[in-house]
Amino acid sequence: MARSRELSSQARTLLADLARSGQDWRHGYELARSTGLRSGTLYPLLIRLEAQGYLQAEWQAPAGSGRPPRHAYRLTAAGLALARAEQDLHRGQIVAKRGEALS
Amino acid sequence: MSASFSRRLARGIGRLLLLAYPARDFSWARAMQHEIDQLDNDGAALVFALGCLWGGCRQTASTGLNWFAEGMKMKNGLWSWLLVPRNAGLAGALAATCLGISYLLAAGAPPLYVVVNAAAFLLGAVALSGLRGIAVRAERHAGPIVLALGSCLLLTSLAGASVAGASRWIWIGPLSVQVSLVLLPAMIVAYARHGDALGHAGIVAAAAALALQPDRAMAGVLAMSMAALAFARPGRSAAAAVVVTLAAFAITLVRPDTLPAVPYVDRILFSAFEVHVFAGLAVLLGSALLLAPAAIGWGLDPARRQVYLAFAATWLGCVLAAALGNYPTPVVGYGGSAILGYLLSISIFPADAGAMAGSGDRAATADSDSVGISPRTRLVTHPAG
């Protein structure tokens, strides 16, 4: 579960987006739209987040007849903590960069 | 009302996802398939499905390569050695040369042809070991290297030996050498490692040279590799390189190319099967082996994938040109130029690429890639610093 290195910008975007929804369940296409990630990038990220315990996934009953069940996602407590930590780290880096630019 | 073509295609891709993703991710593939079915817009469903399929192919390829790497690591030192792209290239070139020689023998080619190919391999292998330092310096000196090689191509087109209106060769003793086949692949790999202003100038010189010669096959190869590079390393200079090389290729298309097919050199991808089915298979397998180092580099050296992509585009382009027209079939056909060019091009590969395949560090490098490629054990995506 431990991360050894920096997250990609895509992973950060996804984490931040999922963190904004808190405990609400989100769907794949909706996440792709809101993050701007392509599905081929989004799903491998979701798969890894889930494998590392940062993401919770569940099958939801079909919304209407003739529709298949749907996979939905939200961050676990560990995922929310990671998203917050990443946000803080990112903010810190921006402040540091601004400081360097001004000095 | 029947479903539109896009919808049917999206559904078909949805079913394909179950095969495209590794078995452990089956439920995820199912999730994607169902998500595609949820989308009301047919076009959006198709785009979404195609993205999922691309992601699945990358996941599976990455998993396969990592399993392969892990398995090989455990076996013995030879496999670790082979997992270095440059070494894989040397082994692939040896195998392809041998397969080519077996075809030449089966086809009844003059014994001298066999000797020339074998000698070219030995010469290239010696040069490869002598040029080890280039791999280290290529990153810093790529610009001058590319410009120098581009200038050599230009000189050849202006002062080289001419046959049926094409000036592609120089004579070394009794042997004719096609300079573009020897130098262009290495030039492209060097440019892929680092493209600066001198490198851009070198590419322009090469494009002009190929248009002047004219050399339709190598101009196509140059354009194809620049397109691959533009895909891997987008930017204005990459786009400009594509435009310039495409223009050169277009010029070669309108200029007459009347050279007839040369026995044992051109069109052997097809004619080898007329000799014997095994001769045909040897030629095909030898051609496929030329791409092996690119596949290994792509999997094990993700930080420099553009180099391997350009390399693959170059040699795939050469093979395609040989399949489509009267152009030399690289390495497996008679001719030392392609063998030398192949070995020269792998000499420019990053020296440390795959070097950690036998150590624990390799995994750390292998997964330092953009999303969707690295193994699930980490969420890391690019090397720090």
Major pleated sheet of chain B: 3 strands, antiparallel
**Shape field of chain A:** elongated
Query: Spans of chain A with pLDDT under 50 lasting ≥5 residues?
Result: none
Indicate the proportion of strand residues of chain B.
under 5%
The residue fraction in helices of chain B comes out at: over 70%
How much strand content do the residues of chain A show? Answer: 5-15%
Structural overview:
The complex is a heterodimer of chains A (103) and B (385). Chain A has a three-stranded antiparallel beta sheet. Chain A is built from four helices and three strands. Chain A has 103 residues and is of the alpha+beta class. By secondary structure, chain B is mainly alpha-helical. The relative contact order of chain B is 0.14. Chain B has two domains: 2-77; 84-363, no CATH class. The longest helix of chain B is centred in the first third of the chain and has 34 residues, at 42-75. Chain B has helices at residues 5-20, 26-38, 42-75, 77-82, 85-107, 111-130, 132-159, 179-193, 197-212, 216-232, 236-254, 268-275, 277-289, 292-300, 305-324, 336-347, 361-366; strands at 161-163, 166-172, 175-178. The model of chain B is unreliable at 355-385 (pLDDT under 50). Chain B is globular, with a radius of gyration of 22 Å. In chain B, α8 runs parallel beside α10. The chains are: A alpha+beta (103), B mainly alpha (385). Chains A and B meet through α2 and α3 of A and α2 and α3 of B.
